[in-house]
Amino acid sequence: MKKKILIQTTDLSLSFPSASGKLQILNSVNFSLFEEETVALVGPSGSGKSSLLMLLGGLEDSESGSIIVNGSEITKLSEDQLTNLRKNTIGIIFQSFHLIPTITALDNVSIPLELAGYLNVKNRAIEILNEVGLEKRLNHFPSQLSGGEQQRVAIARALAIKPKIILADEPTGNLDQNTGLKIIDLLFSLNKKNKSSLVIVTHSTELAKKCQRQVKLENGKTIESHR
Amino acid sequence: MSNLSIIKFAFKDLRGGLSKFWIFFICLFFGVLTISSIGTFRESIKEGLQTEASEILGGDISLTLAYRGASSDELNEIKKISSSFTEVITFRSMVSTIDIGDEYNQALVQVKSVDQKYPLIGKVTIEPEISIKEALKKSGDNYGILVENNLLEQLNLEVGSNLKLGESLYKIRGTMSSIPDIGSNGFSLGSKVIVDTNSLKNSGLLKQGTLFETNYYLKISNNKDLEAVKSLFLKKFYGKGFRWRDTRNPAPGIEAVVNRLYFFLTILGMSGLIIGGVGVSTSVTSYLNIKRGTIATLKTIGATNSILTRIYLIQILAMSFVGTSLGAITGSYLLKLAEPSLNAVIPFPLKVEVFIQPILISLILGTLISLIFSLIPLFNFCDKKITDLYRSHSINSRLELPNLRQLLYMFGLIFTLIIIILLISPDITLALWFIFGSIFSFIILNLMSLFLKHSTKKLITTNKINKMLSLKLALASIGSENGENKSVLLSIGIGLIILATMGQIEKNLQFTLTNDIPKKAPLYFLIDIQKNQKESLIDSLKEKNLISDIKTAPMLRGFITKINNKDVSELKIDHWALRGDRGITYENKPTTAEKITKGEWWPSNYEGPPLVSFAQNEASELGLKIGDTITVNILGRDLTGTIYSFREVNFATMGINFLMVFNPSALINAPHTNIATIYAPKKYETEIIKIITQKFPNVTSVSVGETVKKVKDIILKSSLIIKWCAALIIFLGFFVIIGALSTSEQNRIFESSILKTLGASKKIILLSILLRSVIIGSFAGLVAIILGAIMSWVVISYFLNSEFSFFVSSAIWITLTGIFISLITSTFFAIKPINSKPAKILKTID
User: Fold this and answer.
1) Does B9 reach chain A within 8 Å, measured CB to CB?
2) Among A80, A87, A114, whose Cβ lies nearest the Cβ of B5?
3) Mean pLDDT, to the nearest integer, of A46-74?
4) How many domains does chain B have?
5) Domain-embedded: residue B729
6) Which single residue of B279, B634, B642, B747 could bond B558 by disulfide (Cβ 3.0 to 4.6 Å)?
7) Chain-wide mean pLDDT for chain B?
8) Which of B291, B301, B312, B386 to mutate to test the interface with A (most CBs of A within 10 A)?
9) Residues B64 and B194 in one domain
10) Residue B9: its chain A contacts at CB < 8 A?
11) Cβ-contact B470, B761 below 8 angstroms
């Protein structure tokens, strides 16, 4: 069965001003993501991988080009419209976890559910935290959790709303190798269970190989390869 | 997300970052405490006046007549409406000591002549403890007199000494430390003395035309309606010259002074709160800066700007509530603690309680200031892009302007604040000037801060500066984007503007009182000169060549009752000329000191209907034209005159100046006395006064120098209050600066570590920090001098109607204060950066 395209970019460009002139990060990038697909964004440092991920999540404004996410042209959406799109469709996982330090693990996972208007927020949050193996850490604050545990909370938070798209920016970047492997396994299994699409930025070739497709970025352009 | 969830999250999220709010608390707490204490002080005085209204007034009702006592009809009516009453006559006079060898002293006194029923309410505290009857009764040849302690000191006398008042001799039977009916005392030039009215029969005082007031203090039964009684009495004796006061407003003079003082101190308190607002803004910016990660994450997972704004607004409001309510309540209770000390110092009753109104007003003002100064950083952070929030970890001082909707919220809050200030002000014009001045100062300081930032950025590229490393570092710091310099400049700037304005006003007032007046002013004012004494008085003084000049004029007193046949009470004009009685005279021709500005003088020996020449400035203020009619009540009779001319009159010369001059035929036959001004060298003062008191004991001499000194003392005491308030403002400013500097301390430690790594010595780093503070302090001082000069010029020229002079010494002092504050705070915060270990700092950051 032909899978639906969830993300499509056309001639996407991004640049930043700098003291020595314009710095071109992405140059007419064309990218697509299908339903239930896993894609790795790879490339050397400074190639624009994270920038592309931020653009796909509506966290960054492009210079030119189009980005269609789940049927909506997001370059034309307002800040609030983008927020609404994210809270219903996209889950984002960061390298630095970005948990809210002043609330517990349970509250960190509850918030996106409340924002999305879920009923039975607490039950769902407990359910997803159990799935990531943190049933005994529900009322711990982020400062009381290890790096791996914090990333699990971040994964739970991203998947709580059952998003169609998960964007992960070097999710194991701040973790040791063993922990990183466990996190990746967890991420992939939950992604499969959720039937969501996953775009993951990574430097790790092993992780990249786990994905169905790898997209390499070099000098702001994409070079695609299949697994 | 439901509102309840938003509130719950807001309070949970407060955990991380409460420490950033300490400056926020202090600024709001002290700012609100000041306003709350001032408001409680005013309410306490009002409550004290109300609770002890009868005692302050001397009765339930006070009726006053000028120049005469009540007729038998009037007395009968007074007896009818009251259960009891007492008669008290007040006037100024001279007392003198009996010759003791070469010693001869005299003093101006305020005489209170009482009957047997005095005091009707309250008591006179006498030392030694004797009753007032005992103190004043005739014993042997002499009646007794009660005096104040300062008179004994002034005349070098003691209890038991003799004192001459008019032609009569009195024995000092005791001193009085407190008397009831303070509401009727007003501003007194001389010390108070009390005598029995019977004793004045042979004193030669209280002759026809002498300036005296007869007060009747009445007690009425509880169930009488004061307004009804007043209405009937005044209707029956309309135009007879009665002035009515009752317990509903026992001391309008005191209340007016207190209201002015309250307004003035509240303005100073508000200035402190505005400085506090700068601290609030810095605190909120600093707090939101550590929350940038949380804000970014919330945006990522679906929180809109509206939700974010609500979350952090709830936090700000919660912190504001704690700070303002603690400040408001503490301010109120602080006054309670100070009540015993205040009662010992303040001459009218103070009844301190917890009053809701000042607490509420200070709470509202504090909350509004907190919101106004928090909204811009709040809107900025909530509107920032997610990637900007995640990427940068330093405070960005380049705050963007809010959008239209956000600006409307801001203006709405500012407008509400303005309305509240206007509502609590007794003087709308002054309040509007304060508001305008504050907004103007704020805008100018912000613009100047921008100017300083941009010009220092340009300066550091010049060749000369390149060679001076410390100066270059100082200028670079001022031109940087971290924003602390703006907060420092704002808080020092506002404090110094207030000091500069107050300083120039104070200097101008002192200059007017001490320098201009004595050169042109007379040595003495003489009042109550009988018609048949005038010539002999002039001859006696001229005979011994003691005086260079003497001017005389007939003197009557009356109060304006109508303008163009309309009652002044219906005209709703608030002008000093319409409050109380005024001096009135008559002249055949204008004196050389006066210039006719409009109209003309009446012909010599004119005997037609009464004509009036009015003082030009006051006529303009009252809206009078040539041809208008003025009705004055003199000695219980109405006299209506047509305005025939306007005169230029300068009351500041302290010569003989009258608001109204009538043609002679209108008043020459009315009972009156004369006044005179004596111009003489000060060395002849004692001899002049000796002649007057010995030969003309009924004539009262008022020393112009002593009067000026007394007014100067009052101004000096008032300026002490100003200085205390200014100190409080500077104190608040300190905290704001500390807050701003502590927020960016880590940046400075980092910069210092890098510089040390590159070879900069501690001396260079310290010098750059000190130079920066000198530049900012000087700049703030300069701005303050200019704005302070403008604002004080407005106050002196338009509100005090005086000539403005700029005082350089005050200006220099202001600049030095600015530099000093900046230096002290910067030096304190230079310690850590200078002593930091580069490896420790740079390794941690890596």
Assistant:
1) yes
2) A114
3) 90
4) 3
5) no
6) B634
7) 84
8) B301
9) yes
10) 103, 107, 111
11) no
Question: How far does the CA of residue B407 sit from the closest CA of chain A (Å)?
Answer: 19
Question: In angstroms, what separates the C-alpha of B391 from chain A's closest C-alpha?
Answer: 12
Residues B629 and B694 in one domain: yes
Residues in chain A: 227
Of B13, B293, B306, the CB nearest to A98: B293
Which residues in chain B have Cβ-Cβ distances shorter than 8 Å to A88? 302
- For residue B330, give the nearest of B71, B16, B34, B550 by alpha carbon: B34
- Residues of A engaging B, defined by a Cβ cutoff of 8 Å: 54, 57, 59-61, 79-80, 83-84, 86-88, 92, 98-103, 107, 111-112, 114-117, 157
pLDDT, tens only, B779-803: 888 888 899 899 888 888 877 777 7
Mean local confidence (pLDDT), B477-496:
77
Q: Which two tokens stand for residue B529?
A: 């000169």
pLDDT band, residue B397 (cuts 50/70/90): very low
Q: How far away is chain B from the Cα of A191, in angstroms, using its nearest Cα?
A: 18
* CB of B453 closer than 8 Å to CB of B459: no
Handedness of CA B621, B625, B631, B632 (dihedral sign): positive
Name the residue in chain A with its Cα closest to that of B296. Answer: A98
Residue B433 or B719, more confident: B433
In degrees rounded to 5, what are phi and psi of residue B620? -65, -45
**Helix pair B745-757, B762-794: axis angle to 10 deg:** 140
Domain closes at, from B691, B710, B729: B710
Domain co-membership, B35 together with B147: no
What letter does residue B514 receive in the DSSP assignment?
I
In this structure, the answer to whether residues B87 and B123 fall within a common structural domain is yes
Preferred mutation among A114, A122, A139, A144 to probe B, highest tally of B CBs within 10 A:
A114
Q: How many CB pairs under 8 A join A and B?
A: 73
B632 touches B660 (CB < 8 A): yes
Q: Looking at the predicted structure, is the pLDDT value of residue B105 above 80?
A: no
B125 pLDDT exceeds 70? Answer: yes
Residue B541 and residue B632 in one domain: yes
The SS3 assignment for A206 reads helix
Report yes or no on B836 lying in a domain. Answer: no
Last residue of a domain, one of B197, B224, B246: B246
CATH number of A5-226: 3.40.50.300
Q: Which helix (H) or strand (E) holds A33?
A: strand A21-34
Print the domain residue range for B690. 520-710
**CA-CA distance, A115 to A148, in Å (whole number)?**
26
Q: Residue A50: name the closest of A93, A17, A19 by CA.
A: A93
With respect to residue B358, please indicate whether it lies within any of the assigned structural domains: yes
Nearest CA in chain A to B305: A80
Q: Are B66 and B241 in contact (CB under 8 A)?
A: yes
CA distance A151 to chain B (A): 14
CB contact under 8 A, B12 and A116: no
Nearby residues of B689 by Cβ (< 8 Å), 6 or more positions away? B106, B524, B701
Residue pair B69/B214 in contact (Cβ under 8 Å)? The answer is: yes
Query: Is the CB of residue B384 less than 8 Å from the CB of residue B406?
Result: no
**Residue B828 maps to a domain:** no
Q: Do B351 and B408 reside in the same domain of the chain?
A: yes
Nearest by CB to residue B302, choosing from A60, A86, A107, is A86
Interface test with A, best of B300, B315, B391 (most A CBs within 10 A): B300
Asked if B49 and B66 sit in the same domain, the reply is no
Q: Closest residue of A to B299, CA-based?
A: A83
β-bridge partners, B217: B62, B86
- The answer to whether A98 touches B300, Cβ cutoff 8 Å, is yes
Token readout for B143 is: 């009646």
Helix (H, G, I), strand (E, B) or coil at B112: strand
E strands present in A56-196: 64-69, 72-73, 90-93, 165-169
